[in-house]
Specification:
heterotrimer; A mainly alpha; B mainly alpha; C alpha+beta; A: mainly alpha; 14 helices; globular; C: alpha+beta; six-stranded mixed β-sheet; five-stranded antiparallel β-sheet; 9 helices; elongated
Chain lengths: 290, 247, 319
C-alpha cells in the first residue's frame, strides 16, 4: 500500500524566483486563472465550512454557547475524549517507535507483512473496524464471553472505545518516525556505544533526540485522529449520553436531536482544537525541515 | 502481540463471521438490493472524487509550489485541515453552508452531490501532499528548457511534468480512494442516508449493525474490503508502470 | 595496548569481507590499514571495535580476549568518516559524553573537556553546535570526544575521507603529531596510499579480505611481496613480465648494449619531476620518471629517440 505519502513535513524551499526575476516564464493571465481556480476551490470546500462553525455557533450570542459547552453531558464528553486520547496516544507512540526501529534496522521473515498490516487502519472503514471489534469483544464474540466471565466489559464501555481509538490511530507514529530513523542511521548510536553508553542509553540520549521532530509530528497526527474518531467509536460505545459519549458522539447526538446550538458549540471546541493541531503541524513542519 | 490483539484478531473475526452462515447466506446478505445500491454508489462516488482530486489536487500543489501570493503559508497549512478536523464536524459545517438553511441557497442535503462534497473535503490533502514534494524537487530549469525548445505551456506540462509527478499523483489518489470508500462521519450527516439514493456502503453496514444483523454487516464489509483491495491493487499496478516510464 | 586478530572471517550474504585474517598490532604504534574499497579494511576495524561480530576468529586487546565483549567494554575510541557528531549537543557536551556516562564529577569533566579542546585546537568553540563547525573542526571534535575516555586503542575509519584536499593534508600531519604526543595505539583505515605512507609507522595492505603484506612504508615500497602491493603503494610500469618503478627506468642518450630503443611519446612536467611516456620498438608502452635536471641534461623532447634500461625489475609469480 502506497502510504509513504502521508502528511509529512514538506520541505518549504521555494523553488520559485529564478535568476531571471519572474517565477517561471508562464503567462500572467494563465497564472492568475490557475491561482483563482485553486484558491476558489479551496475556499468553497475548506475555508468557508470552518468559518461556518463559528458563525452558526454564535448565531444566538455567546452565552448560549458557553452554557451548551458546560452542561454535565458536554463536560463529561470532553473529559472522556481527553482520557481516551491520553491512553491511546502514548500507547501508539511507544508501539510506533518500537515498530519503526524494528522495521528500519532489522531483517526478518514477515517484515513485508508487518509493513502491510500497519497500513491496514488506513484502508478500512471505521465502521468495519467497529464491527470487527464487536465480533471479537462483544458478548458473543471470540474473546468477549471469556472476558465477561471475569467481569471485564469491553464493548459499550471505556476499554472498547480505547481499543477502537488505538486501532484507527495506530500507523501515524510509525510512518512518521521510520523515514527519519532511516535517515539518521546508526553511526551516532555506534559512536555512543564506543564511548561506553549502553544500547538503551545510547538510544534514549542520542537517537531519540535526533528523531524528535518526526516523532512529535507523528504524535500530533495520532492525537488529531484519536480525538476526531467517530465511526468505530460510535458502534462500539453504545452512545450512552453522560457515560460513553465522546465529543464527536456528543456533537452528532445533539445534532440529531435538533439541539443545534449544543451541536455547533461542541463542534466549535473541536474545530478550535483542530486549528491548534494545524498550528502544531505547521510549526513542526518547519522544525523538521531545517 | 500488541498488534495482533488490536488489529489482526478483530479483522479475522469479521471475515470469519461473514462466512459463518455458509456461502449462501453470505451471498444473500451481500447482494440485497440495498447493499448493492450502497456499494455501487460508494465506488462510483469514490472514483469520481478521486478523479476530481487528481486534477484539482495537482493544480493546487502546482500553485502552492510555483506561485507566490500573500498568505500562501496560511493556505499551505490549511490543506492539512481535513486531517485535523473530526469528520463529524466537517459534516455539520458542510451542511450548514450547503444544506437547507445555508447562505448560498444551495441545498445539497439528501443528495448524491452532498456525498461527493463530503468526500471531497476529507480527501483533499492526499493528492496535494503527495505531489508537492515531487514538484519541489523538480528544478524550474526543466520547464525552461522545454520552453526554450519551443514547447507551449500545456505541452510542457504534459510531456515534461506529468510523467514525473504521475506516480505521486496515483499514490495520493490511491490513498484518497481508500479514504473515500470508508468514510463515515461526514457522509452520515450530509447525505441523509436515504437508502438506494444516498446511502453509502459504510452507512449501510452501520445500519445493519444497529439492527443486529451482524452477519449481514460482516458480509457487506468483506465485499467492500475485497473490492477496495482490487481497485487499490490496480492503482498500484498503474503507478508502478508509470514509475518505469518516468525519467 | 597491543591488538591481535587471529583467523577473523566475516561475510555479508555472498560477499566475503574478511577471509581468515590474522594480524598483530604492536602497542603504541600508528598503523594504517590500506586497501581499495571492498578490501575488508573497514570491516576489520569495526570487528576490532566490537561494532561488527566476526563469523569466526578471535580478537585479543591488551592480552584480554575481547571477542565476546561489546564495544562499550573494549576500551576503544572510534572516529567515523562522517564524524557521527551528536547533532543536538554542543561541542562541549559531545566531548563530555563518555565522561558523563562514566559519571565523573562535573568539575573533572569540565577540566578535561577544556584540556582536550586545547589539544585539538578548538578552544573557543565549546558552546557551538556541530552544524556550525567546518568539516575539519568536526573531525577534531570527534577525536577529542574519543580521547576523552582515555581509550587503550584509537581506531579511525577513513577519518579524512570527507574533507577537502587541503584540510586533509593538514589533519594528516596533525594526527601524526598528536600520536607522537599521546602515544595511544592507533589504527586508521585509508584507501589513499600517500596518506598511509606519510602518516603511519606500519602499513597493512589488504585486498579482497586478505592481508597482502605488513611492513613499514619503506619496506613496502622497496620490497613489495606481490604485484598488487607494488602497484598499490606506488606508481609502476610494466616491462615484459615484470613491474618496475618509473624512476628506476634509466634514460640515456646513447645505447650501451644493455639498453633498448624507445621513442618519447609525451613529456609531462610535474613540477620538479618529469614523466616520460615512452614507446618501445615492439610497441610496448613504458613510463619513466626523471628529475628536471636530468631531463634538461638529456635535452628530452617529444618524438626523440632515447635508450632505456629498467633496473630493479620485479617479476612476481602468478598467485
Amino acid at each position: 500500500m502506497p502510504t509513504d505519502t502521508l502528511p509529512r513535513p514538506t520541505v518549504e524551499r521555494p523553488v520559485g524566483p529564478s535568476p531571471l526575476g519572474t517565477p517561471t516564464a508562464s503567462a500572467r493571465p494563465t497564472r492568475l486563472l490557475l491561482r483563482s481556480v485553486a484558491l476558489g476551490y479551496l475556499a468553497m470546500v475548506l475555508v468557508l465550512p470552518v468559518g461556518a462553525v463559528a458563525w452558526r455557533a454564535f448565531a444566538g450570542g455567546v452565552a448560549p454557547v458557553w452554557q451548551a459547552v458546560t452542561t454535565p453531558d458536554a463536560l463529561h464528553a470532553f473529559w472522556l475524549t481527553v482520557l481516551i486520547a491520553a491512553i491511546a496516544v502514548p500507547l501508539n507512540t511507544l508501539f510506533g517507535v518500537a515498530c519503526a526501529v524494528v522495521l528500519v534496522r532489522h531483517r526478518f521473515p514477515g517484515k513485508r507483512l508487518l509493513d502491510a498490516v500497519i497500513d491496514l487502519p488506513f484502508a478500512i472503514s471505521p465502521v468495519v473496524i467497529g464491527l470487527a471489534l464487536i465480533l471479537v469483544y462483544g458478548q458473543e464474540g471470540w474473546l468477549g464471553g471469556w472476558l465477561a466471565e471475569r467481569g471485564v466489559q469491553v464493548i459499550f464501555s471505556l476499554p472498547g472505545m480505547v481499543i477502537a481509538t488505538v486501532f484507527v490511530s495506530l500507523p501515524y507514529v510509525v510512518r512518521e518516525v521510520a523515514p527519519v530513523l532511516r535517515e539518521v542511521g546508526t553511526e551516532q548510536e555506534e559512536a555512543a556505544w564506543t564511548l561506553g553508553a549502553s544500547p538503551l542509553r545510547a538510544f534514549l540520549r542520542v537517537t531519540l533526540p535526533s528523531i524528535r521532530w518526526g516523532l512529535a509530528y507523528g504524535v500530533v497526527l495520532t492525537t488529531a485522529r484519536a480525538v476526531g474518531e467517530f465511526g468505530a467509536v460510535t458502534i462500539v460505545s453504545g452512545r450512552l449520553a453522560g457515560q460513553t459519549e465522546t465529543m464527536t458522539l456528543f456533537v452528532e447526538n445533539r445534532f440529531e436531536g435538533f439541539d443545534l446550538v449544543g451541536a455547533y458549540a461542541a463542534a466549535l471546541v473541536l474545530a478550535g482544537l483542530a486549528l491548534l493541531i494545524l498550528l502544531a503541524m505547521t510549526g513542526l513542519n518547519r522544525k523538521g525541515s531545517s | 502481540m500488541y498488534l495482533s490483539l488490536i488489529v489482526l484478531l478483530p479483522l479475522a473475526a469479521v471475515v470469519w463471521r461473514s462466512s459463518r452462515g455458509g456461502a449462501a447466506e453470505f451471498w444473500h446478505a451481500a447482494t440485497t438490493p440495498q447493499a448493492l445500491a450502497a456499494l455501487r454508489l460508494t465506488f462510483v462516488v469514490a472514483l469520481a472524487v478521486v478523479v476530481v482530486n487528481l486534477v484539482l489536487g495537482t493544480l493546487i500543489a502546482w500553485v502552492l509550489v510555483r506561485d507566490e501570493f500573500p498568505g500562501k503559508p496560511v493556505v499551505n497549512a490549511l490543506i492539512d485541515l481535513p486531517f485535523a478536523l473530526p469528520t463529524i464536524v466537517a459534516g455539520i459545517t458542510l451542511l450548514a453552508l450547503y444544506g437547507q438553511s445555508g447562505p448560498f441557497g444551495v441545498n445539497l442535503a439528501y443528495t448524491r452531490a452532498g456525498v461527493c462534497l463530503a468526500l471531497l473535503f476529507v480527501t483533499l490533502p492526499f493528492v496535494v501532499r503527495a505531489v508537492q514534494p515531487v514538484l519541489l524537487t523538480i528544478e524550474p530549469d526543466m520547464e525552461e528548457a522545454a520552453r526554450s525548445l519551443g514547447a507551449g505551456g500545456l505541452t510542457t506540462f504534459r510531456r515534461v511534468l506529468l510523467p514525473t509527478i504521475a506516480p505521486a499523483m496515483l499514490a495520493g489518489g490511491a490513498l484518497a480512494f481508500a479514504r473515500a470508500v470508508g468514510e463515515f462521519g461526514s457522509v452520515v450527516i450530509l447525505s441523509g442516508n436515504v437508502p438506494y439514493r444516498t446511502e453509502v456502503a459504510s452507512v449501510h453496514v452501520f445500519t445493519l449493525v444497529e439492527n443486529d444483523d451482524v452477519g449481514g454487516a460482516a458480509a457487506v464489509s468483506v465485499v467492500l474490503l475485497a473490492l477496495s483491495v482490487v481497485v487499490l491493487a490496480a492503482l498500484n499496478l498503474i503507478q508502478r508502470r508509470s514509475t518505469r516510464h518516468a525519467d | 595496548m597491543s591488538i591481535t586478530a587471529k583467523g577473523v572471517s566475516r561475510r555479508f550474504g555472498d560477499f566475503v569481507a574478511l577471509d581468515d585474517v590474522s594480524l598483530e598490532i604492536p602497542s603504541g604504534s600508528l598503523t594504517a590499514l590500506l586497501g581499495p574499497s571492498g578490501s575488508g579494511k573497514s570491516t576489520l576495524l569495526r570487528v576490532i571495535a566490537g561494532l561488527e561480530r566476526p563469523d569466526a576468529g578471535t580478537v585479543v586487546i591488551d592480552g584480554r580476549d575481547a571477542t565476546a565483549l561489546p564495544p562499550q567494554r573494549r576500551g576503544v575510541g572510534f572516529v567515523f568518516q562522517h564524524y557521527a557528531a551528536f547533532k543536538h549537543m554542543t561541542v562541549r557536551e559531545n566531548v563530555a559524553f563518555g565522561l558523563k556516562v562514566r559519571r565523573r564529577p562535573k568539575a573533572e569533566i569540565r577540566r578535561r573537556v577544556d584540556e582536550l579542546l586545547e589539544l585539538v585546537q578548538l578552544p573557543g568553540l565549546a558552546d557551538r553546535y556541530p552544524a556550525q563547525l567546518s568539516g575539519g573542526q568536526r573531525q577534531r571534535m570527534a577525536l577529542a570526544r574519543a580521547l576523552a575516555v582515555e581509550p587503550q586503542v584509537l581506531l579511525l575509519d577513513e577519518p579524512f575521507g570527507a574533507l577537502d584536499a587541503r584540510v586533509r593534508k593538514e589533519l594528516r600531519a596533525w594526527l601524526r603529531r598528536l600520536h607522537d604526543e599521546v602515544h595511544v595505539t592507533t589504527v586508521f583505515v585509508t584507501h589513499d596510499q600517500e596518506e598511509a605512507m606519510e602518516v603511519a609507522d606500519r602499513i597493512v595492505v589488504m585486498n579482497h579480505g586478505h592481508v597482502e603484506q605488513v611492513g613499514d612504508p619503506r619496506t613496502l615500497y622497496e620490497h613489495p611481496a606481490n604485484a598488487f602491493v607494488m602497484s598499490f603503494v606506488g606508481p609502476v610500469t610494466r616491462v615484459g613480465d615484470g613491474l618496475v618503478r618509473p624512476h628506476d627506468v634509466e634514460l640515456r642518450a646513447e645505447p650501451n648494449g644493455t639498453t633498448s630503443e624507445a621513442m618519447i611519446e609525451r613529456l609531462v612536467h610535474l613540477g620538479f619531476e618529469v614523466r616520460v611516456d615512452l614507446v618501445l620498438e615492439d610497441g610496448q608502452r613504458l613510463l619513466a620518471q626523471v628529475s628536471r635536471e636530468d631531463a634538461e641534461q638529456l635535452e628530452l623532447r617529444s618524438g626523440q629517440i632515447v635508450f632505456v634500461r629498467p633496473s630493479h625489475v620485479r617479476v612476481f609469480s602468478k598467485q
